[in-house]
Amino acid sequence: MLLSLPLSALGSGGHFNPAVSLAVWLLGGLHVSLLIPYWLCQLCGGVIGAGLAKAVAPSERFGNASGGALGGPTAREQLPAVLGAEIVLSSFLLLVVCMGAINGRTRTPLAPLCTGLTVTAGILAGGGVSGACMNPARAFGPALVANCWNYHWVYWVGPMLAALLVGGLVR
Q1: Residue 67: which CATH number?
Q2: What pTM, to 2 d.p., does this model score?
Q3: Which of 8, 25, 76, 113 has the most crowded Cβ, counting Cβ within 10 A?
Q4: 69 pLDDT tier (thresholds 50, 70, 90)
């Protein structure tokens, strides 16, 4: 068993990302009955965050930024690069989370710092390619509020494929 603590001792684990929840479930750290409620709450959080951004941002600035919706691919030719970037960046993030916070043998108190640094490195490395979303809930909220759905599926497929990949590798 990968977890040395019972599920009740882990609490929520701070899951803000549906891909993280999927990977944690694959590793046995989340009961299957909680997976869908976690995803729904994460999506609601993304929508609330985007709604708050819309409420405080001047309307012309919000519109110019498409409400914060990731505008990664603008043409079909960019899809392989964007999808590849999301898979790779999400895989690094999920490996850090799963190995640093979930796996009982490699868990470390530095997991939150490592996770934050990994997100920062991912944004710096892949921001220009895909927007470095790495989180379907973060893509969903702004897309819904701004009604900007161009190639939105890559921000779901990439991180979820990464979760399946990392779940299989760590397990």
Answers
A1: 1.20.1080.10
A2: 0.87
A3: 25
A4: low
